[in-house]
Specification:
7% strand
Length: 1893
């Protein structure tokens, strides 16, 4: 990633600059600088979007600044390469804004289309969207998968190179859906080259492959568990002819195991859901939860998916691909057998063996379904066969081994079934047509990394490494090509090359190589393989690592991330072995052929070492059959890894041979939430899929590229006037050198300017600053002017208001002062009185309260003293009694205690004494002297007793005194407590009294307030009563007024009811009209379909008739001269073969007929080319043969040349005479109007007789010319017949004769003769014979349609082809030897021809007399030169030829003089006639012409009308002239030339006049055939020249006029109201042609629709360029930076359509229709349809182009629409409804310009955009893109508000308008005022055989 330099940092990292900083949650977070960055700063001061201030530390080593954020106007771009700053946060933010805010899931990243899965069905894949993207450039529309598909299709057709679309991404990212839509686009756009519905078969393969190869995973409900590459084949016309599919690495382990929340393949659940169907009873299926293989994931149902319906779709797809019901049931039996096999319960017998119980229900069902025996299958499920060199023995399997063997068999059967289905799908998609090119669609798994990665993830990531390498190289190559193309100095860009990682995997001694080697080892294991990997790569490759805590795993550094792979199972999955004996049992099935077919190529497989692996007798299946046992071991060394590597190599070779297109699918979140974006997951996938690598490669060079014109338009604001030079390139160079000082930041290419990353943002900053300064200046000036203007208005108004206000205030002040003084006096006395009364009341109340309070206090004090006294007495007595009681109790207790103690002591003494008494003697002996001691002790005791008594007395006295004192203290305490209580009571009394006093005060104030309120109420009531009286009076008046109003309202309501009734009737009428229009539209659509089928039927008849001699369908590009001759032959043979052809057509299949038609067309084209070649070579050969016969040929050639010149001169003179006659007739017609030369006058008769004689003389001269032509033809035929045997075969002679003839009758005769000759020569090829052959083969047509169609074609056309080949070979043998000679001769002839044309042009400019002499002189000179040449070669022959030529010249000179005399005579007569006419009409013309009237008023160039008395406006013709009439009047009549000068609708009038005569003579057959021939001929001419607007318009006008004539002269009173009496006499009398009128009306509808299609084809390429892209108002729209996908320039270059182009084309259409006499109402309908197409196409492109949705573009559109409205106004077509068809476009333009912020804006938008649907409004708002920084984006909340308000609309969810819709057409009756008897037939129509009646 490029970092900004230190120099630019100070300019870019300024205050308020926005940057991206890393973030743990959002990956990247936006921040804004609060301080300028200066060199040397170690941190940036930033503020986040949540107004949090942070300090961003810079890396002290790198000093890299954070990424800069792009300007807001670049956010949301269609192409990421258009961003000025190309880095990871910019890419992530742009994708997020487009996905979350604009709901756009597609974005370009250079050549890559990034597709984000929305997890929601979007309406962007319909047929209308496909039509919108078809034919568009990839950059002209918004990013879409259809745009990529269109680009691939276009490059295939343009570059003649195969294409590939590589779709990759994680599981659940939408790869399969993207690939499916790409194939749908190809099928829709290209169609198929045959009628076998190949495109439907290609699409039908999708549901089949999804059913057997897709499953539900935790990441995706429809995850493809295999890779596929589909090649869609195209023929040389780029129509689909077939397809071929290759698959990669099917996940077979899913068949036997699924993780939680996952499913097995869909087909199993579809079968279980349809188990109740009668045909599935034999499968013995039940719920999916009953089978082990379908219940492990515990998620058998997918929300929103009906497995039963999905199975029906799958079965229909099988049928469409040719897999019949029996094979389908066989497939279902195999699948059901796999489910039953998974439920087989294997019991453990011991540790080394197992057993299947007998009569196991599921194993029985398995055996019955596959047709094998129960014993064999149960035997080999639990046993294996071991083979050694000498013997073979059977070994038992443990339960675990048997279970693994069973699962391996299930996986192998499913894999075989999968491959069989793929093979048959490919067979169904193969065609016999040679493939010219193909487009491959690769849908392959993306980079995967899980917690546990195994062999499958290893292969997937290996494939992605290869694809990423190819992607990097392609991106690098495109960048280099772009630089070389623009001649920019190319510097090597360093990009990541993952070749080392690929070498680690696939090189010698790589991971796959070591894995295959380990598989060959007898005791190879995953552990030993892991050790080999460590020993080989751990120290030599830095991309290979070993985990720290594992010895059974390894880590590879892939291009996207590090992945740790677990080695467990690698060897087993790489071997892919299965028990050989189980396969043999299945192959031995005799009841089930499909199973045998699955294992048809299966051979015995052994271990690569030839020994038995450790797991027992398993076999690994080989891909190719082994030819010998020795070769078998070698063949079976191809492991799964080896096969995958080889297939991947083939895939890479295929991709490298094509032009790749990349689609990277991104999964926005892991929870399948709609439009939820997880930045962490998104950036992880962007790194893995190579998008960021593309950005890095682009950013390393010059990513921003502008054309000089775009740069000039965008940055013109940065230039001053002196910088603008005529040369835009030089101007841009000069400006850039001033703006950007560092020249390394940009480079100048041939057509573009290349910028480094960030430079466009810098220029945008300069532009925005310049515009901001300009805006501020403009705003300042305008605001100053507005403020001053507002201030002056306010000042004047304020002065006036102040003047009146001050006067009013002064008057009010004086009045107020007087009232205030009076009120003050009143208030003084009133207040005094009130205060005195209030004081007296308060005084009396206070005295009363004091008296009562004092008495109450005295009573309370007395009661207290009394209670205290009594309480003291009671307390004294009670305390005394209590003291006495206490004393007595104490005394008794003491006495009792003393007694007890004394008793105890006495007992002790007694006991001692007794003891002493017993042993007194002993004691005496032992203790002598003790008695003395006892006596002493006794004395001491007595003394102590005395002391105790004294102490007791003292204690008693002290106790008595203490008791007394206690009593005294208690009394005092009681007294104090009473005093305290009294004080408290008194305090309470005081507070209560104060409260009572306050309450009384409040009551007093309340009473006073109530009194005041009562007084106020009284006054108010009085005022109210007075007011009520006045109101009653007013109400009385109002009641009277209301009465009058009610009367008026009743009248208005009655009137409104009447209007409502009228409105309801009008609405009902409008509804009926709408229903009628809908019904008419349906009828016209049905009519269109009927006509299409009718044309198809006619084409088939013509093709079938084309096999007859003389019948050949002419290509529409052939000239009318060629088609006129086939017309007669077709009509003459029509009735002969129509019945036979219809019989054959009924029995032949449509596809067969179309193939016959195609083959016949090719043969006819070949035959026509041969004829053209024959004609050219015959002409050359005639010249070569003339060389051999010099004498005769030279003389004859000179004679023919002279006669040809003479004939041309005569014809030119005749044309001139005709022109003079026509001029005379015009003048006579003008005189007839004035009465000067009225019919019957003598002058008129004389002139008419002279003119008739002149005409007769001209006819005589014409006959002489025809005689001269016939002589020439006869002489040519004599010359040809003389040498025909020596030169060529008879058919070539006839072809030569026809090519040389020029007269119409002679050519017809020659053609009929040639046809008869061909019929005679081709008699063996009879139509009856061909029909009989076809009838005989009719029962096998369904087989012929598949395999033998070409045989039928060869059988049917065998004779014709042989004749054509014979003629071709004969002519080639004749002419090959003369080719070189003829080339030189042809060059000479061309030079001579050019010289002759120049001389002829010079002669034509001379007078007639000089012209003839010059021609003769030239001819004499030429003949002299030729004679000199002949004389040099042969003097004798030259002399004889000269004599013959001179004789012939004398004869020609005599004839020439005779013609000259005749011409002079005619000229003199014309001069006399002209002079007489001028003299007769000069006087009257001058007298009758007013000053303001034009004398030379233009009139229609018709003949002079002859008013005959008996002429009834009818034309008679013979029956045999009917074909000639139709031919001359319809087939050969051209709108340009002859038809332009006719009366509008003249062919219709002539046909009706012929029809009138048939009606007059009551010839129903003639009427029927004339009408039928007319209708068929009009259809024929429209079929031939249906793409010519003038032809279609001409016949639409004539058909409508013919229809109006049939109505006008039908005799119905409704149509006769506008007729004259004479016209009513011309009404049809014998036949009612109402049914034919309907048929002709249907024909007119067909012509109208064809005219609309022709006009649409011309207008369509102009609409988008003229209405959207071209800047009609220059400078309003700013050109935004674009990416790699450049859009069409809006600058009007040469050849670019503009609005003026559209208006000019509309003018051309309008003038053409007016010139042809189209009804005005019909013109209005055509214009309405044209404007609908303009509006619909423009709106559709606007909805699909984000760059067009801006405020400035809305202004452009509104201006363009106003120009179209102005055109309507100029043409007087404002009321035709065309303006209303543009209403949706107008509303869309207004939507782009209105404010889009508040709820009021939302309400205004909802009320304004009534013509747009909700989807269209939301789409425009989502696409709205600011062009400048001053504009604001539409917030998501505002769009949701719009959606909420429009929720109740009932409308179609379709996004785009239907551009194919055609309004129903009506043909209002328009009678003609032209009288039929006045119509003259011009001679130019060649209708002389018609007779006026």
């Amino acid at each position: 990633m490029e970092r900004v330099t230190a120099m630019a940092a100070s300019e870019l990292y300024t205050k308020r600059a926005r940057v991206w900083i890393p973030d743990a949650e959002e990956v990247w977070k936006s921040a804004e600088l609060t301080k300028d960055y200066k060199d040397g700063d170690t941190a940036l001061q930033l503020i986040l979007e949540d107004v949090t201030s942070i300090e961003h530390k810079l890396d002290p080593k790198t000093k890299n600044l954070p990424h800069l954020r792009n300007p807001d106007i670049l956010v949301g771009e269609n192409d990421l390469t258009a961003l000025s700053y190309l880095h990871e946060p910019a890419v992530l933010h742009n994708l997020k804004v487009r996905f979350m805010d604009s709901k756009l899931i597609y974005t370009y990243c250079g050549i890559v289309l990034v597709a984000i899965n929305p997890y929601e069905t979007l309406p962007i894949y319909g047929t209308d969207i496909i039509s919108a993207y078809s034919g568009q450039n990839m950059g002209d529309m918004d990013p879409h998968i259809f745009a990529v598909a269109e680009e691939a299709y276009k490059q295939m057709a343009r570059d003649e190179r195969n294409q590939s679309i590589i779709v990759s991404g994680e599981s659940g990212a939408g790869k399969t859906v993207s690939a499916k839509y790409a194939m749908r686009y190809f099928a829709t756009v290209s169609g198929s080259a045959s009628e076998t519905n190949v495109e439907e078969k290609v699409l039908a393969s999708n549901p089949i492959m999804e059913a057997i190869g897709n499953a539900k995973t935790t990441r995706n409900d429809n995850s493809s568990r295999f890779g596929k590459y589909i090649e869609i084949g195209f023929d040389n016309r780029y129509r689909i002819i077939g397809a071929h599919m290759r698959t990669y690495l099917l996940e077979k382990s899913r068949v036997v195991f699924q993780a939680d929340e996952e499913r097995n393949y869909h087909i199993f659940y579809q079968l279980c859901a349809s188990a109740d169907l009668p045909e599935f009873k034999i499968l013995r299926l039940s719920s999916a939860n009953d089978f082990l293989y379908t219940r492990q994931g515990r998620s058998p149902v997918i929300d929103g998916v009906d497995d039963t319906k999905e199975l029906c779709i799958t079965r229909k797809a099988f049928t469409l691909l040719g897999i019949n019901d029996s094979y389908q049931m066989g497939l279902f039996q195999v699948l059901a057998a796999i489910l039953h096999l998974g439920n087989v319960d294997i019991k453990e017998r011991d540790s080394d063996s197992c057993i299947i119980p007998p009569n196991n229900r599921h194993l029985t069902a398995f055996c019955e379904l596959v047709g094998v025996t129960y014993q064999d299958m149960s035997q080999w499920l639990c046993h294996r066969k071991l083979k050694t060199a000498t013997e073979t023995y059977v070994k038992t399997l443990s339960r675990l081994q048997a279970t693994n063997s069973r699962d391996a068999l299930s996986k192998h059967i499913y894999a075989k079934l999968f491959n069989w289905i793929v093979e048959h799908v490919n067979k169904a998609l193969i065609t016999n047509i040679k493939q010219h090119s193909f487009i491959g669609v690769l849908d392959i798994y993306g980079f995967e990394t899980f917690e546990i990665n195994s062999f499958e993830q290893f292969c997937i990531n290996y494939a992605n490494e290869k694809l990423q390498q190819q992607f990097n190289m392609h991106v690098f190559k495109l960048e280099q090509e772009e630089y070389m193309k623009e001649q920019i100095p190319w510097t090597l860009i360093d990009f990541y090359d993952n070749q080392p990682c690929i070498n680690l995997i696939e090189a010698k001694m790589g991971i796959l190589d070591l894995l295959d080697e380990e598989c060959k080892m007898p005791k190879g294991s995953d552990d030993s393989w892991a050790q080999k990997l460590y020993n080989t790569h751990l120290k030599t490759c830095n991309l290979f690592e070993k985990p720290r805590m594992s010895n059974r795993a390894f880590i590879i550094q892939h291009f996207a991330d590090k992945v740790e792979y677990q080695c467990d199972g690698f060897l087993e999955k790489n071997k892919d072995t299965v028990n050989e004996e189980q396969i043999n049992v299945l192959k031995a099935s005799k009841k089930f052929d499909l199973l045998v077919e699955l294992f048809h190529d299966e051979e015995k497989a052994i271990s690569p070492t030839g020994q038995v692996p450790g797991t027992g007798g398993r076999t690994r299946l080989s891909i190719k059959p082994d030819k010998s046992r020795d070769k078998s071991s070698k063949e079976h060394k191809k492991t799964v890894g080896c096969q995958f590597r080889n297939s991947l190599q083939m895939l890479m070779e295929t991709l490298n041979a094509t032009t790749p297109h990349y689609v990277r699918c991104i999964k926005p979140n892991d929870f399948k939430m709609a439009f939820s974006f997880d930045p962490k997951r998104a950036v992880q996938q962007l790194r893995a899929c190579g998008v960021l690598e593309t950005i890095r490669i682009s950013a390393a060079g010059f990513p921003s590229r502008w054309t000089y014109q775009e740069f000039f338009s965008r940055y013109r604001v940065l230039m001053v006037q002196k910088d603008v030079l005529p040369d835009k390139k030089l101007t841009c160079k000069n400006v850039l050198e001033k703006l950007v000082q560092d020249q390394d930041k940009y480079q100048f290419g041939k057509t573009k300017i290349f910028f480094r990353a960030g430079q466009v943002a810098y220029l945008e900053k300069l532009r925005a600053d310049k515009l901001r300064v300009a805006c501020i200046r403009i705003q300042k000036t305008i605001r100053c002017w507005l403020a001053r203007k507002k201030y002056l208005r306010q000042r004047s108004a304020a002065i006036t208001i102040q003047r009146f206000t001050r006067g009013y205030q002064a008057r009010c002040l004086a009045k107020f002062m007087r009232r205030t003084q009076a009120a003050t006096m009143i208030q003084k006395y009133q207040r005094m009185c009130v205060e005195r009364k209030r004081y007296r009341k308060k005084q009396a109340a206070a005295l009363a309260l004091q008296k009562i309070l004092r008495a109450y206090q005295a009573r309370q004090k007395y009661q207290t003293l009394l209670r205290e006294s009594k309480s003291v007495i009671i307390q004294r007595h009670v305390r005394g009694w209590l003291a006495r009681c206490w004393y007595k109790r104490c005394l008794v207790s003491i006495v009792y205690l003393q007694c007890c103690i004394r008793r105890m002591r006495a007992r002790r003494e007694l006991k001692k004494l007794k003891i002493e008494a017993r042993s007194v003697e002993h004691f005496k002996k032992l203790n002598r002297g003790m008695e003395n001691k006892i006596m002493q002790l006794q004395r001491k005791i007595d003394e102590q007793h005395k002391d105790n008594r004294l102490m007791s007395d003292k204690l008693n006295s002290l106790e008595t005194s203490y008791t007394t004192e206690s009593e005294r203290m208690r009394a005092e305490l009681t007294r104090l407590r009473g005093a305290e209580e009294d004080a408290k009571n008194k305090g309470n009394q005081v507070s209560s009294l104060q409260e009572e006093l306050e309450r009384l005060r409040k009551e007093l104030s309340t009473t006073q307030q109530e009194k005041k309120n009562i007084e106020d109420w009284t006054q108010a009531y009085k005022d109210k009563m007075e007011k009520m009286v006045s109101e009653l009076k007013e109400q009385n008046g109002l009641l009277k007024t209301e009465k009058n109003d009610l009367n008026r309202l009743i009248q208005e309501q009655s009137q409104q009811m009447n209007e409502k009734m009228v409105r309801a009737i009008a609405q009902e009428t409008q509804q009926l009209e709408t229903d009628l229009n809908e019904e008419r539209s349906r009828y016209q659509n049905l009519l269109t379909e009927h006509l299409r089928l009718e044309e198809k039927y006619d084409d088939l008849k013509e093709e079938m008739r084309g096999s007859k001699p003389g019948h050949r369908r002419r290509d529409s590009t052939h000239s009318s001269n060629e088609s006129e001759y086939t017309y007669n032959s077709e009509y003459t043979d029509l009735e002969e073969g129509s019945r036979a052809v219809e019989d054959v057509t009924r029995g032949i299949d449509t596809s067969l007929t179309l193939k016959l038609q195609k083959r016949l067309t090719e043969l006819e084209q070949e035959k026509q080319s041969l004829r053209n070649e024959l004609e050219n070579k015959d002409e050359q050969f005639q010249r070569a043969r003339a060389r051999d016969n010099v004498e005769f040929k030279k003389a004859r050639g000179a004679e023919l040349e002279y006669e040809s010149l003479k004939r041309q001169e005569l014809e030119s003179e005749n044309k001139k005479l005709k022109h003079d006659l026509a001029a005379m007739r015009k003048s006579l017609l003008g005189d007839a109007a004035t009465g000067a030369g009225a019919p019957g006058s003598p002058a008129y008769k004389v002139l008419l007789d002279q003119l008739n004689s002149s005409c007769e003389e001209l006819e005589v001269r014409k006959e002489e010319v025809l005689i001269l032509r016939s002589q020439l033809v006869s002489q040519k035929e004599a010359m040809h017949h003389k040498d025909e045997k020596e030169t060529m075969t008879e058919p070539s002679v006839y072809a030569d004769d026809v090519s040389k003839l020029k007269d119409t009758d002679e050519i017809k005769q020659a053609y009929v003769g040639l046809k008869d000759t061909n019929r005679f020569m081709r008699q063996p090829l009879d139509v009856g014979d061909l029909l009989s052959r076809l009838r005989s083969a009719a029962p096998d047509f369904h087989k012929l349609n598949e395999d033998g169609e070409l045989w039928l074609v060869n059988q049917g056309l065998k004779e014709t082809v042989r004749l054509l080949e014979h003629q071709l070979q004969t002519q080639r043998r004749t002419h090959d030897s003369e080719v070189e000679t003829l080339r030189g001769e042809l060059q000479n002839v061309k030079e001579e021809n050019n010289r002759q044309q120049q001389l002829l042009a010079q002669n034509l400019q001379l007078p007639p007399e000089a012209r003839i002499e010059a021609s003769l002189q030239h001819e004499i000179t030429r003949l002299t030169n030729e004679n000199l040449e002949l004389l040099a070669e042969d003097p004798t022959a030259s002399q004889e030829a000269r004599v013959i030529i001179l004789r012939r010249m004398v004869d020609l000179m005599e004839q020439l003089e005779k013609q000259d005399r005749t011409i002079r005579k005619l000229k003199k007569q014309l001069k006399v006639y002209s002079k007489r006419i001028g003299e007769m009409g000069a006087g009257q013309t001058e007298g009758q012409t007013s000053p303001g009237q034009m004398v030379d008023e233009p009139i229609h160039p018709v003949n002079i009308p002859r008013r005959e008395k008996d002429f009834q406006g009818m034309l008679e013709y013979k029956k045999e002239d009917e074909l000639k009439l139709v031919k001359n009047l319809i087939l050969e009549l051209k709108p340009r030339g002859v038809a332009v000068n006719l009366i509008p609708g003249l062919p219709a009038y002539i046909l009706f006049m012929c029809l009138r005569h048939a009606d007059y003579v009551n010839d129903d057959q003639k009427v029927r055939t004339l009408l039928t021939s007319t209708i068929n001929s009009i259809k024929k001419i429209l079929k031939k020249r249906g793409d010519d607007v003038e032809t279609v318009s001409f016949w639409l006008a004539n058909t409508c006029r013919f229809l109006h004539c049939l109505k006008q002269y039908s005799g119905d009173e409704a149509f006769m109201k506008h007729n004259t009496s004479r016209q009513n006499e011309h009404c049809l009398s014998n036949f009612d042609l109402a049914e034919y009128r309907q048929v002709i009306s249907d024909l007119a509808i067909q012509i109208y629709q064809q005219l609309i299609k022709c006009m649409e084809n011309i207008l369509w390429p102009m609409i988008v360029s003229g209405m959207l892209e071209h800047e009609t108002i220059q400078g309003v729209s700013g050109v935004k930076p674009t990416g790699l996908r450049k859009r069409t320039s809006s600058i009007a270059d040469e050849g670019t359509y503009t609005l003026d182009s559209i208006i000019r084309q509309l003018n051309a259409f309008h003038s053409t229709m007016c010139q042809h006499g189209t009804d005005p109402e019909l013109i209005k309908q055509v214009v309405k349809q044209q404007f609908y197409i303009i509006g619909a196409v423009t709106l559709n492109n606007l909805l699909l182009r984000k760059d067009m949705c801006s405020w400035s573009k809305g202004m452009q559109i509104r201006y363009n629409v106003s120009q179209l409205e102005e055109w309507l106004r100029d043409k007087g077509l404002m009321v035709c409804g065309a303006k209303e068809t543009l209403e949706p476009l107008i509303q869309a333009a207004q939507l782009l310009q209105v404010k889009k912020k508040t709820d009021e804006d939302a309400e205004a938008i909802c009320s304004m955009c009534q013509g747009l649907t909700t989807a269209q409004i939301v789409k425009v708002l989502n696409l709205y893109t600011p062009v400048n920084e001053f504009e604001e984006r539409v917030s998501v909340a505002f769009i949701r508000t719009i959606q909420t308000r429009l929720r109740d609309r009932c409308e179609s969810p379709q996004l785009l308008m239907d551009t194919k819709m055609i309004y129903p057409v009506t043909f209002p009756f328009s009678p003609s005022s032209l009288a039929l008897e006045t119509i003259q037939i011009p001679s130019s129509l060649n209708l002389a055989f018609l007779t006026r009646v």
